[in-house]
Specification:
Elements: E1 2-4, E2 14-18, H1 26-42, E3 46-52, H2 55-60, H3 68-77, E4 82-87, H4 97-105, E5 109-114, H5 128-132, E6 137-139, H6 153-161, H7 165-172, H8 175-181
Parallel strand pairs: 1-4, 2-3, 2-5, 3-4, 5-6
Helix pairs in contact: 6-7
Protein name: FAD synthase
Pathway: Cofactor biosynthesis; FAD biosynthesis; FAD from FMN: step 1/1
Catalytic activity: FMN + ATP + H(+) = FAD + diphosphate
Length: about 190
Amino acid sequence: MEIHTPGRLRLPASTLTIGALDGVHRGHQALLLKTKERAAELGVPFVVYTFDPPPKVFFQKGTLITTLEEKLNRLEMLGVDHVIVGKFNEAFMQKTVSDFIDELKFLDPVEIWEGPNFQFGKDRKGTIEDLKGHFKVGVLKPLKCEHGELISSTRIRMLLQQGNYSLAKNLLGDIRYISFLEGKNYAV
């Protein structure tokens, strides 16, 4: 897996997903595996664009679920080819929707996969519809746990604060298991 800073990676084609991915939880894993599946079917690199720190942690001073190193490790275990890590700070927040789309064009995404509530760019003004104006975009339904509740980083943070480590761990999922199913042997 190769790690890049924004604007540095150039590809003739790719599949892409963009997100904070704090925790790389089971919901994120479903999105990542769908993007990876499409990359394999299309014969193009699998690219993830993520942020450090995650925007919610930056704005709300919330608890970080995984360090950048842990996140990158989990992404590598999921078979990501390239990761772009945007340093989320005051300067990054000024990136407009059109600037962000122009940057994505350097990756020439054949497909972009996102969740239904994806927003991007300055003041979160960019939407799925904005992406669809330039790229083919697939939208994956949010993943729910066995109890019918949405799996999210916010929920996992809340569970950790409440001391419900067992459920939080369940929602984070075990990437070693996914890797095993795909025939990879990762010692963690």
